[in-house]
Design goal:
Largest sheet of chain A: 4 strands, mixed
Largest interface: A-B, 32 and 32 residues
Oligomer: homotrimer
Strand order of the largest sheet of chain A: 2-1-5-6
Order of helices and strands of chain A: EHEEEEHEEEHH
Helix content of chain A: 25-40%
Shape of chain A: elongated
Protein backbone atom coordinates (compact mmCIF):
# COMPACT_ATOMS: atom_id res chain seq x y z
CA UNK A 1 0.00 0.00 0.00
CA UNK A 2 -0.63 2.44 -1.53
CA UNK A 3 -2.11 0.85 -4.62
CA UNK A 4 -2.78 3.06 -7.63
CA UNK A 5 -4.98 1.67 -10.42
CA UNK A 6 -4.85 3.54 -13.73
CA UNK A 7 -7.55 2.86 -16.31
CA UNK A 8 -6.90 4.47 -19.67
CA UNK A 9 -8.09 4.19 -23.27
CA UNK A 10 -6.41 1.36 -25.19
CA UNK A 11 -3.59 2.77 -27.27
CA UNK A 12 -2.95 5.85 -25.10
CA UNK A 13 0.01 4.32 -23.26
CA UNK A 14 2.96 2.36 -24.61
CA UNK A 15 5.41 0.35 -22.52
CA UNK A 16 7.83 3.22 -22.15
CA UNK A 17 5.12 5.69 -21.05
CA UNK A 18 3.80 3.18 -18.49
CA UNK A 19 7.28 2.92 -17.01
CA UNK A 20 7.65 6.69 -16.83
CA UNK A 21 4.20 7.10 -15.27
CA UNK A 22 5.00 4.42 -12.69
CA UNK A 23 8.20 6.19 -11.70
CA UNK A 24 6.42 9.53 -11.41
CA UNK A 25 3.42 8.23 -9.45
CA UNK A 26 5.88 6.55 -7.06
CA UNK A 27 7.92 9.72 -6.70
CA UNK A 28 4.86 11.91 -6.12
CA UNK A 29 3.45 9.59 -3.45
CA UNK A 30 6.79 9.19 -1.66
CA UNK A 31 7.61 12.93 -1.75
CA UNK A 32 4.22 13.74 -0.24
CA UNK A 33 4.16 11.03 2.42
CA UNK A 34 7.75 10.02 3.17
CA UNK A 35 7.20 6.27 2.74
CA UNK A 36 9.80 4.11 0.95
CA UNK A 37 9.15 3.49 -2.79
CA UNK A 38 9.06 -0.29 -2.21
CA UNK A 39 5.53 0.08 -0.79
CA UNK A 40 4.07 1.84 -3.83
CA UNK A 41 2.05 -0.52 -6.07
CA UNK A 42 0.72 0.55 -9.46
CA UNK A 43 -1.52 -1.25 -11.96
CA UNK A 44 -2.37 -0.18 -15.50
CA UNK A 45 -5.55 -1.39 -17.18
CA UNK A 46 -6.50 -0.71 -20.81
CA UNK A 47 -10.07 0.07 -21.74
CA UNK A 48 -11.30 -0.81 -25.25
CA UNK A 49 -13.13 2.05 -26.99
CA UNK A 50 -16.89 2.22 -26.52
CA UNK A 51 -16.68 1.24 -22.86
CA UNK A 52 -16.46 4.70 -21.25
CA UNK A 53 -19.32 7.21 -21.14
CA UNK A 54 -19.74 10.74 -19.82
CA UNK A 55 -23.19 12.36 -19.75
CA UNK A 56 -24.48 9.16 -21.38
CA UNK A 57 -22.26 9.62 -24.48
CA UNK A 58 -19.03 7.78 -25.46
CA UNK A 59 -15.89 9.47 -24.13
CA UNK A 60 -12.19 8.69 -23.67
CA UNK A 61 -11.18 9.51 -20.13
CA UNK A 62 -8.56 8.06 -17.85
CA UNK A 63 -9.36 7.13 -14.26
CA UNK A 64 -6.80 6.90 -11.45
CA UNK A 65 -7.88 5.32 -8.18
CA UNK A 66 -5.39 5.40 -5.33
CA UNK A 67 -5.93 3.22 -2.25
CA UNK A 68 -4.11 4.86 0.67
CA UNK A 69 -4.05 4.56 4.44
CA UNK A 70 -6.67 6.61 6.29
CA UNK A 71 -5.42 9.62 8.25
CA UNK A 72 -3.27 11.64 5.86
CA UNK A 73 -3.70 15.41 6.18
CA UNK A 74 -6.04 16.90 3.61
CA UNK A 75 -3.14 19.04 2.33
CA UNK A 76 -1.11 15.89 1.58
CA UNK A 77 -4.03 14.20 -0.18
CA UNK A 78 -4.75 17.23 -2.32
CA UNK A 79 -1.08 17.74 -3.14
CA UNK A 80 -1.04 14.15 -4.45
CA UNK A 81 -4.20 14.77 -6.51
CA UNK A 82 -2.83 17.97 -8.04
CA UNK A 83 0.61 16.56 -8.84
CA UNK A 84 -0.83 13.36 -10.33
CA UNK A 85 -3.19 15.33 -12.55
CA UNK A 86 -0.52 17.67 -13.91
CA UNK A 87 2.06 14.90 -14.32
CA UNK A 88 -0.37 12.62 -16.19
CA UNK A 89 -1.20 15.40 -18.65
CA UNK A 90 2.49 16.22 -19.13
CA UNK A 91 3.54 12.58 -19.83
CA UNK A 92 0.55 11.39 -21.86
CA UNK A 93 -0.67 14.54 -23.62
CA UNK A 94 -4.19 13.76 -22.38
CA UNK A 95 -5.78 17.02 -21.13
CA UNK A 96 -6.73 17.37 -17.44
CA UNK A 97 -10.36 17.68 -18.60
CA UNK A 98 -10.20 13.96 -19.48
CA UNK A 99 -8.90 12.77 -16.12
CA UNK A 100 -10.73 11.62 -12.98
CA UNK A 101 -8.54 10.94 -9.92
CA UNK A 102 -9.75 9.63 -6.57
CA UNK A 103 -8.02 8.64 -3.35
CA UNK A 104 -9.74 5.99 -1.24
CA UNK A 105 -8.78 5.76 2.42
CA UNK A 106 -8.64 2.43 4.24
CA UNK A 107 -7.65 1.65 7.84
CA UNK A 108 -4.25 -0.08 7.61
CA UNK A 109 -5.54 -2.83 9.91
CA UNK A 110 -7.61 -3.94 6.90
CA UNK A 111 -4.52 -4.41 4.74
CA UNK A 112 -1.98 -7.23 4.53
CA UNK A 113 1.10 -6.95 2.35
CA UNK A 114 3.78 -9.62 2.23
CA UNK A 115 2.00 -11.46 5.06
CA UNK A 116 2.15 -8.44 7.40
CA UNK A 117 -0.70 -6.28 8.71
CA UNK A 118 0.01 -2.64 7.87
CA UNK A 119 0.87 -0.04 10.55
CA UNK A 120 -1.11 3.10 11.34
CA UNK A 121 0.24 6.39 9.98
CA UNK A 122 2.96 7.56 12.37
CA UNK A 123 3.78 4.04 13.59
CA UNK A 124 5.94 3.02 10.63
CA UNK A 125 9.31 3.21 12.41
CA UNK A 126 8.24 0.83 15.18
CA UNK A 127 6.76 -1.50 12.54
CA UNK A 128 9.97 -1.39 10.46
CA UNK A 129 11.96 -2.36 13.56
CA UNK A 130 9.58 -5.18 14.51
CA UNK A 131 9.57 -6.63 10.99
CA UNK A 132 13.10 -5.75 9.90
CA UNK A 133 14.17 -9.30 9.05
CA UNK A 134 11.09 -10.06 7.00
CA UNK A 135 11.10 -6.70 5.16
CA UNK A 136 14.84 -6.92 4.45
CA UNK A 137 14.44 -10.46 3.10
CA UNK A 138 11.76 -9.14 0.73
CA UNK A 139 13.87 -6.17 -0.36
CA UNK A 140 11.32 -3.71 1.03
CA UNK A 141 13.69 -1.94 3.41
CA UNK B 1 -17.86 11.88 -10.11
CA UNK B 2 -19.93 9.83 -9.75
CA UNK B 3 -18.16 6.93 -11.45
CA UNK B 4 -20.14 3.75 -12.13
CA UNK B 5 -18.20 0.61 -13.06
CA UNK B 6 -20.26 -2.20 -14.60
CA UNK B 7 -18.72 -5.67 -14.82
CA UNK B 8 -20.77 -8.13 -16.81
CA UNK B 9 -20.35 -11.51 -18.52
CA UNK B 10 -18.72 -11.26 -21.96
CA UNK B 11 -21.42 -11.36 -24.62
CA UNK B 12 -24.24 -10.03 -22.42
CA UNK B 13 -23.99 -6.45 -23.71
CA UNK B 14 -23.62 -5.19 -27.26
CA UNK B 15 -22.69 -1.64 -28.26
CA UNK B 16 -26.27 -0.50 -28.48
CA UNK B 17 -27.21 -1.91 -25.06
CA UNK B 18 -24.14 -0.26 -23.50
CA UNK B 19 -25.28 3.08 -24.89
CA UNK B 20 -28.81 2.61 -23.55
CA UNK B 21 -27.52 1.52 -20.12
CA UNK B 22 -25.22 4.53 -19.98
CA UNK B 23 -28.11 6.88 -20.72
CA UNK B 24 -30.30 5.26 -18.10
CA UNK B 25 -27.63 5.15 -15.37
CA UNK B 26 -26.96 8.83 -16.04
CA UNK B 27 -30.67 9.68 -15.92
CA UNK B 28 -31.23 7.70 -12.69
CA UNK B 29 -28.29 9.34 -10.92
CA UNK B 30 -29.22 12.86 -12.06
CA UNK B 31 -32.92 12.48 -11.23
CA UNK B 32 -32.04 11.31 -7.71
CA UNK B 33 -29.32 13.87 -6.98
CA UNK B 34 -29.90 16.90 -9.21
CA UNK B 35 -26.34 17.06 -10.57
CA UNK B 36 -25.71 17.82 -14.27
CA UNK B 37 -25.24 14.76 -16.55
CA UNK B 38 -21.76 15.97 -17.55
CA UNK B 39 -20.42 14.75 -14.19
CA UNK B 40 -21.64 11.16 -14.55
CA UNK B 41 -18.87 8.76 -15.62
CA UNK B 42 -19.58 5.15 -16.58
CA UNK B 43 -17.24 2.28 -17.46
CA UNK B 44 -18.17 -1.15 -18.80
CA UNK B 45 -15.86 -4.12 -18.31
CA UNK B 46 -16.41 -7.58 -19.81
CA UNK B 47 -15.65 -10.70 -17.81
CA UNK B 48 -14.66 -13.88 -19.65
CA UNK B 49 -16.59 -16.96 -18.51
CA UNK B 50 -15.07 -19.01 -15.70
CA UNK B 51 -13.94 -15.90 -13.80
CA UNK B 52 -16.97 -15.33 -11.56
CA UNK B 53 -17.96 -17.59 -8.68
CA UNK B 54 -20.82 -17.65 -6.18
CA UNK B 55 -20.77 -20.10 -3.26
CA UNK B 56 -17.50 -21.42 -4.73
CA UNK B 57 -19.17 -22.44 -8.02
CA UNK B 58 -19.00 -20.76 -11.47
CA UNK B 59 -21.77 -18.20 -11.98
CA UNK B 60 -22.64 -15.37 -14.38
CA UNK B 61 -23.47 -12.27 -12.38
CA UNK B 62 -23.09 -8.60 -13.16
CA UNK B 63 -21.57 -6.21 -10.64
CA UNK B 64 -22.22 -2.45 -10.54
CA UNK B 65 -20.02 -0.32 -8.30
CA UNK B 66 -20.89 3.34 -8.02
CA UNK B 67 -18.40 5.80 -6.49
CA UNK B 68 -20.39 8.75 -5.13
CA UNK B 69 -19.77 11.69 -2.80
CA UNK B 70 -20.30 10.97 0.89
CA UNK B 71 -23.34 12.55 2.53
CA UNK B 72 -26.31 11.67 0.32
CA UNK B 73 -29.47 10.79 2.27
CA UNK B 74 -30.06 7.07 2.69
CA UNK B 75 -33.34 7.47 0.80
CA UNK B 76 -31.48 8.86 -2.24
CA UNK B 77 -28.86 6.10 -2.13
CA UNK B 78 -31.47 3.36 -1.92
CA UNK B 79 -33.60 4.95 -4.65
CA UNK B 80 -30.52 4.78 -6.91
CA UNK B 81 -29.92 1.12 -5.97
CA UNK B 82 -33.52 0.13 -6.62
CA UNK B 83 -33.83 1.99 -9.93
CA UNK B 84 -30.48 0.69 -11.21
CA UNK B 85 -31.44 -2.88 -10.38
CA UNK B 86 -34.81 -2.76 -12.10
CA UNK B 87 -33.49 -0.83 -15.10
CA UNK B 88 -30.57 -3.25 -15.63
CA UNK B 89 -32.95 -6.21 -15.64
CA UNK B 90 -35.31 -4.45 -18.05
CA UNK B 91 -32.60 -3.53 -20.58
CA UNK B 92 -30.41 -6.65 -20.43
CA UNK B 93 -32.87 -9.42 -19.57
CA UNK B 94 -30.53 -10.52 -16.78
CA UNK B 95 -32.65 -11.31 -13.68
CA UNK B 96 -32.19 -9.22 -10.51
CA UNK B 97 -31.00 -12.41 -8.80
CA UNK B 98 -27.81 -12.15 -10.91
CA UNK B 99 -27.00 -8.57 -10.00
CA UNK B 100 -24.88 -7.10 -7.18
CA UNK B 101 -24.93 -3.29 -6.87
CA UNK B 102 -22.91 -1.25 -4.39
CA UNK B 103 -22.47 2.46 -3.77
CA UNK B 104 -19.13 3.56 -2.29
CA UNK B 105 -18.98 6.96 -0.59
CA UNK B 106 -15.89 9.14 -0.77
CA UNK B 107 -15.27 12.62 0.65
CA UNK B 108 -15.23 14.97 -2.38
CA UNK B 109 -11.98 16.49 -1.10
CA UNK B 110 -10.38 13.19 -2.15
CA UNK B 111 -11.50 13.61 -5.76
CA UNK B 112 -10.10 15.66 -8.63
CA UNK B 113 -11.89 15.90 -11.95
CA UNK B 114 -10.66 18.07 -14.80
CA UNK B 115 -7.98 19.48 -12.50
CA UNK B 116 -10.53 20.67 -9.91
CA UNK B 117 -11.11 19.38 -6.37
CA UNK B 118 -14.76 18.39 -5.97
CA UNK B 119 -17.21 20.38 -3.78
CA UNK B 120 -19.08 19.01 -0.77
CA UNK B 121 -22.73 18.12 -1.27
CA UNK B 122 -24.74 21.34 -1.01
CA UNK B 123 -21.84 23.55 -2.09
CA UNK B 124 -22.14 22.91 -5.83
CA UNK B 125 -23.59 26.30 -6.78
CA UNK B 126 -20.74 28.24 -5.19
CA UNK B 127 -18.26 25.85 -6.86
CA UNK B 128 -19.95 26.27 -10.25
CA UNK B 129 -19.66 30.05 -9.90
CA UNK B 130 -16.01 29.92 -8.80
CA UNK B 131 -15.03 27.59 -11.66
CA UNK B 132 -17.47 28.76 -14.33
CA UNK B 133 -14.84 29.60 -16.95
CA UNK B 134 -13.02 26.30 -16.60
CA UNK B 135 -16.19 24.20 -16.52
CA UNK B 136 -17.69 26.05 -19.49
CA UNK B 137 -14.48 25.59 -21.49
CA UNK B 138 -14.73 21.83 -20.79
CA UNK B 139 -18.41 21.68 -21.73
CA UNK B 140 -19.36 20.58 -18.21
CA UNK B 141 -21.77 23.46 -17.52
CA UNK C 1 -21.75 -9.49 -0.57
CA UNK C 2 -18.96 -10.04 0.21
CA UNK C 3 -17.30 -9.56 -3.17
CA UNK C 4 -13.66 -10.60 -3.56
CA UNK C 5 -11.76 -9.39 -6.63
CA UNK C 6 -8.51 -11.20 -7.38
CA UNK C 7 -6.08 -9.62 -9.85
CA UNK C 8 -3.17 -11.85 -10.79
CA UNK C 9 -0.50 -12.11 -13.47
CA UNK C 10 -1.76 -13.72 -16.69
CA UNK C 11 -0.74 -17.36 -16.72
CA UNK C 12 -0.50 -17.78 -12.94
CA UNK C 13 -3.93 -19.39 -12.58
CA UNK C 14 -5.56 -22.11 -14.65
CA UNK C 15 -9.24 -23.04 -14.56
CA UNK C 16 -8.73 -25.70 -11.93
CA UNK C 17 -6.74 -23.41 -9.62
CA UNK C 18 -9.39 -20.70 -9.95
CA UNK C 19 -12.03 -23.19 -8.86
CA UNK C 20 -9.95 -24.29 -5.86
CA UNK C 21 -9.20 -20.69 -4.87
CA UNK C 22 -12.90 -19.81 -5.11
CA UNK C 23 -13.82 -22.70 -2.82
CA UNK C 24 -11.16 -21.74 -0.30
CA UNK C 25 -11.95 -17.99 -0.28
CA UNK C 26 -15.61 -18.91 0.26
CA UNK C 27 -14.75 -21.31 3.08
CA UNK C 28 -12.43 -18.82 4.81
CA UNK C 29 -15.00 -16.02 4.68
CA UNK C 30 -17.87 -18.24 5.88
CA UNK C 31 -15.83 -19.84 8.69
CA UNK C 32 -14.83 -16.41 9.97
CA UNK C 33 -18.24 -14.73 9.67
CA UNK C 34 -20.91 -17.42 9.77
CA UNK C 35 -22.73 -16.27 6.62
CA UNK C 36 -24.04 -18.80 4.07
CA UNK C 37 -21.72 -19.53 1.08
CA UNK C 38 -24.41 -18.39 -1.37
CA UNK C 39 -23.58 -14.76 -0.50
CA UNK C 40 -19.87 -14.99 -1.33
CA UNK C 41 -19.02 -13.53 -4.74
CA UNK C 42 -15.57 -13.88 -6.30
CA UNK C 43 -14.11 -12.44 -9.50
CA UNK C 44 -10.76 -13.27 -11.10
CA UNK C 45 -9.04 -10.80 -13.42
CA UNK C 46 -5.84 -11.49 -15.36
CA UNK C 47 -3.19 -8.83 -15.73
CA UNK C 48 -0.94 -8.88 -18.82
CA UNK C 49 2.76 -8.54 -18.00
CA UNK C 50 4.19 -5.04 -17.92
CA UNK C 51 1.11 -3.61 -16.23
CA UNK C 52 2.13 -3.95 -12.56
CA UNK C 53 4.87 -1.91 -10.89
CA UNK C 54 6.40 -1.80 -7.42
CA UNK C 55 8.85 0.95 -6.50
CA UNK C 56 8.49 2.19 -10.08
CA UNK C 57 9.80 -1.10 -11.55
CA UNK C 58 7.88 -3.94 -13.28
CA UNK C 59 6.74 -6.63 -10.83
CA UNK C 60 4.34 -9.59 -10.76
CA UNK C 61 2.11 -9.30 -7.72
CA UNK C 62 -1.41 -10.46 -7.05
CA UNK C 63 -3.96 -8.17 -5.47
CA UNK C 64 -7.04 -9.33 -3.56
CA UNK C 65 -9.70 -6.75 -2.69
CA UNK C 66 -12.57 -7.90 -0.53
CA UNK C 67 -15.70 -5.75 -0.19
CA UNK C 68 -17.35 -6.63 3.12
CA UNK C 69 -20.03 -5.16 5.39
CA UNK C 70 -18.82 -2.57 7.87
CA UNK C 71 -18.75 -3.58 11.51
CA UNK C 72 -16.87 -6.89 11.67
CA UNK C 73 -14.54 -7.22 14.66
CA UNK C 74 -10.91 -6.44 13.88
CA UNK C 75 -10.00 -10.00 14.92
CA UNK C 76 -12.36 -11.42 12.26
CA UNK C 77 -11.01 -9.10 9.57
CA UNK C 78 -7.41 -9.95 10.34
CA UNK C 79 -8.16 -13.67 10.55
CA UNK C 80 -9.56 -13.40 7.01
CA UNK C 81 -6.47 -11.50 5.82
CA UNK C 82 -4.07 -14.03 7.34
CA UNK C 83 -5.92 -17.10 6.10
CA UNK C 84 -6.33 -15.68 2.59
CA UNK C 85 -2.63 -14.86 2.38
CA UNK C 86 -1.45 -18.29 3.49
CA UNK C 87 -4.03 -20.14 1.40
CA UNK C 88 -3.19 -18.16 -1.76
CA UNK C 89 0.50 -19.00 -1.38
CA UNK C 90 -0.28 -22.67 -0.74
CA UNK C 91 -2.53 -23.07 -3.81
CA UNK C 92 -0.66 -20.90 -6.32
CA UNK C 93 2.97 -21.18 -5.24
CA UNK C 94 3.20 -17.39 -5.34
CA UNK C 95 5.12 -16.21 -2.23
CA UNK C 96 3.35 -14.01 0.36
CA UNK C 97 5.85 -11.28 -0.53
CA UNK C 98 4.03 -10.92 -3.87
CA UNK C 99 0.57 -10.54 -2.42
CA UNK C 100 -1.41 -7.44 -1.40
CA UNK C 101 -4.76 -8.08 0.31
CA UNK C 102 -7.24 -5.42 1.40
CA UNK C 103 -10.68 -5.50 2.94
CA UNK C 104 -12.98 -2.57 2.18
CA UNK C 105 -15.93 -1.96 4.49
CA UNK C 106 -19.24 -0.64 3.22
CA UNK C 107 -22.49 0.03 5.09
CA UNK C 108 -24.89 -2.73 3.97
CA UNK C 109 -27.56 -0.08 3.30
CA UNK C 110 -25.39 0.86 0.29
CA UNK C 111 -25.62 -2.62 -1.20
CA UNK C 112 -28.33 -4.37 -3.19
CA UNK C 113 -28.11 -8.01 -4.11
CA UNK C 114 -30.86 -9.86 -5.94
CA UNK C 115 -33.06 -6.77 -5.62
CA UNK C 116 -32.77 -6.68 -1.81
CA UNK C 117 -31.03 -4.11 0.39
CA UNK C 118 -28.52 -5.89 2.63
CA UNK C 119 -29.01 -6.21 6.42
CA UNK C 120 -26.70 -4.82 9.09
CA UNK C 121 -24.35 -7.29 10.79
CA UNK C 122 -26.34 -9.08 13.49
CA UNK C 123 -29.70 -8.55 11.74
CA UNK C 124 -29.35 -11.40 9.24
CA UNK C 125 -31.86 -13.77 10.87
CA UNK C 126 -34.67 -11.22 10.82
CA UNK C 127 -33.77 -10.39 7.20
CA UNK C 128 -33.76 -14.08 6.22
CA UNK C 129 -37.23 -14.47 7.72
CA UNK C 130 -38.57 -11.33 6.00
CA UNK C 131 -37.20 -12.35 2.60
CA UNK C 132 -37.44 -16.12 2.89
CA UNK C 133 -39.59 -16.63 -0.22
CA UNK C 134 -37.40 -14.49 -2.43
CA UNK C 135 -34.12 -15.97 -1.13
CA UNK C 136 -35.41 -19.53 -1.41
CA UNK C 137 -36.60 -18.91 -4.97
CA UNK C 138 -33.05 -17.70 -5.80
CA UNK C 139 -31.40 -20.68 -4.10
CA UNK C 140 -29.66 -18.40 -1.58
CA UNK C 141 -31.15 -20.03 1.53
Amino acid sequence: MPLYQCLSPEGLLDESTRGNLAEEITRIHCDATGIPPSFVNIIFLDMPSGRYFVAGKPAALSVLNGAIRVGRDLAIRQRILRELSQMWTRLTGQPEGELLISLWENPPGNVMEAGLIFPEIGQEQQWFVQNRDRLTELGML
